Hints:
The structure holds two protein chains of two kinds. Chain A is of the alpha/beta class. Chain A is built from eleven helices and 14 strands.
Amino acid sequence: MSKIKIVHYINQFFAGIGGEEKADYKPEVRESIVGPGMEFNKRFGDEAEIVATIICGDSYFNENIDKAKSEIIDMVRKYRPDLFIAGPAFNAGRYGVACGTIANAVKEELSIPVLSGMYEENPGADMFKKDIYIMHTKNSAAGMRKAIKTMAPFAIKLAKGEDIGSPNEEGYMARGNRKNYFADKRGSTRAVDMLIKKLNKEKYETEFPMPNFDRVDPNPAIKDISKSKVALVTSGGIVPKGNPDHIESSSASKYGKYDIQGISDLTSETYETAHGGYDPVYANEDADRVLPVDVLRDLENEGKIGELHRYFYTTTGNGTAVASAKAFAEEFAKELIADGVNAVILTST
Amino acid sequence: MRLELGNILIKDIQFGKGTKIVDGVLYVNKEELTNLLLEDENIVDVSIEMARPGESIRITPVKDVIEPRVKVEGPGSIFPGVLSKVETVGTGRTHVLKGAAVVTTGKIVAFQEGIVDMTGPGADYTPFSKLNNVVISCDVKEGLKQHEHEKTLRMVGLKSSKYLGEVGRNVEPDEVNTYETLPLIKSIEKYPELPKVAYVQMLQSQGLMHDTYIYGVDAKKTLSTLINPTEIMDGAIISGNCVSACDKNTTYHHLNNPVIHDLFEKHGKEINFVGMIITNENVYLADKERSSNWTAKLAEYLGVDGVIISQEGFGNPDTDLIMNCKKIEEKGIDTVIITDEYAGRDGGSQSLADADPKADAVVTGGNANEVIKLPPMNKIIGDISVVDKIAGGFDGSLEDDGSIVVEIQAITGATNELGFNELTAKGF
Lengths: 349, 428
C-alpha cells in the first residue's frame, strides 16, 4: 500500500520565519517538511508522509479569512492528500482559530478527514471542536513532542477510516455527539456501582457530563404595549384541525405558520393540538387554552395592545431537539421582525 | 417487612381447555378469559393472541405490560386498592409467572404509543421481546370518553394478569428469593459500618396516559412518601402511562424494579439499603417545588448517605429530576441519577431540558431520538396504521413493504430510566 499523503498547515512562527512582526506573511506552500512536521514524520514511520507544508501568518489569515481560505484550499487541492493536519496550536489564540477555520474549510470543500491540536482554553477549540477532531495539548510548545505522539497515530486512524473511540480513549476534545451502545451491565447495576464508588470517594465516570446550560435572559419590558404588534408562538402544538402540515407529535422536524386574520376564538371544530406529550383533551376542547387568541383579540379591541399579528407560529416541544427548536426560531424570528412584530408571547405546555 | 418471591419459570404459552401450568407451559382458556373481560360493559369485543420470543410479530400500540403474580401468603392481594382491598401488601409469599406477561393494546387518542417486535433489530431494544406474551386487544363501546377508555384498558391488563397469576397459586416455584426491609433503627443497628442508602423513585403524573397509581390513588394527588420495596413487588404501584413508550414504566417494570433488586443485591455487603421514597412529576412549578422539597426532607430524615434517583419520562420531568438531585445533594447526601436523552437524531443536540453541576453522577438509558429501521413482520397485533402518529414516528414512517423507520422512543421500554436495559450512550 502506498503511503498516506498529508498536507500540513503551520503559522509563520512554527515555520521559523518570525514572530508577531511577520504575522502578515502570505500563504506559501513548500514541498518539504517544516518545523513540527519533522516530529510528525518521525512518528508516521512508513505509514504516512507530509507531501507539502503550507505556511501562513496568523494576522494575514484572520484579517483576510475568505481570501486566505480559498488560496489555501487551492494549494491543498493540488496535492490530493488523504488527510489535512493544522497545528498543533497550543494556547496561541489566533493560530488556533486559523487552524480550526482552515481545517473545517478543507473538510467541507475537499471531503477529507482533518485534524488539529490545541490547549482546551484556546478560543479555536470552543469554536471548532464540534466540527472537527481537535486533540488535547498542553498550553505551550513545550508540549510539542507529547502532542504529536498522540496526534500522529490518531491521524493515521482517521486517514484509514478506522473506528474512532471515545474522546477519553483517543485524546480528542468531546464533540458533543451522543451515540447509543449496549453496555455489559444494565443501567440499575451501573447506577448502584457508581453510587458505591461515590460513597467511598473512589473515582467514577458519569455517563453524561452536565452541559453548560444555555440560558436566555429575557428582553427588557416593552414600554408601551398598547402600541405594539404582538405575535403568538407556541411549542404546545396548536394546529388547524387535521394538522395539515403533519407536524410530528414528538421530536418535531418542522413548524407551522397559520393565518388567524378575522379569527377571534379557536374552537374544537377548527383547531386542535398535535402535541403527544400532554393530556390533549382540554387543548382539543378549546385551543385558546394553549394559544390565547380569544384573550388577545379582546385586548386588541379594548386597545390594550396595538394589534395581534396575522400569523401564529407553532410546533411541538415534545422531545424536539434543542438544535431543531433553535433553527426554527432563527428562521421565523426574521419573518416576525420583517413583519414589524415587536412583542411575542411564547406559550409552552 | 419480609417477602418471599417464588418464581415459576414459564417456557411457553398455549391456548388450552383449562387455564393452568403444566411443566412450565402456561395454558390459557381463551373463552374463559374473554368472558371475564366482557363483564365490563364498556367492552364490546375482545381479541386474545399469543406472541412468543423469536416469532415474526409486531405488537402496536402497546398500552401496558404486566407480569402475572398471585399472593399466596400474607395480608392483601395483588394490585391492592385497585383489584383488591387497600390492605398493606409486601409480606408473606407471592408467586410469579416468570417469563410470561400480559400485553394490552388499543387506540385511545390521536397519537398512539409503543411498539414491541418479537424478533429482528427492534427486539433488542425491548425487554418484552424475551417474554411469552398474552396480547389482548379490546374494542370499546362507541362514545366512551378518552379517560374512561384508558381506564378500561388499564383494568383489562390488570384483571387478565390476576386471572393468569391465580393458576400459579399451588404450583411449586422453581426458585424462591427473599427480600426484607427492617425498621430503620434496626437496620442501622444491624449494619452500623455500612453506608446507608435509599432509593428515590419518581413517578410519572402529568395527566391522561401519563399517570401512575399507588394503592389506587392517583400519584399526582400525593405528597412524596415512604414505601417498602416489597410492597411494589406485590403491585402497590401500577402504570397508567405509555406515551413516548421508551421511557415509561409499565406495570411489569414496577413489579420488577431493577434498582430495588440491585440495591438488595449489595445490601448487607457494601451498602445498607434502608428504604425507599416515592415522589411525583406534576406539571405545575409549585407542585414540583413542593414534591422535591418533601423528597429532600425525607432523605435527610432517614439519615442516608446516598440515594439513587430514577426518573420517568423526559422534558418536563427533567426539571423534577434536577430539583430532586440538587436539593438532596444540598443536604450533603450523594446522589446518582438515572435518566435518558433526547439529543436529536444525529446525537448533537442538548440531551436534557434541565441541568445542574451537582448532577455529577448520571446513568443514561440512551438517546431516544436515535433512528432505527424495523423490517416488516409476518403478523401485526393491534393497529399498524398508527405508526405515523406514534411519538417517535414521523410522516412516512410506515413504508410500503411494511417496514417502519422510527426513533427508538417508539419502542416500549427502550430507554427505560429504572435502568432495566443495557442500552446507554456516550459522547464522541
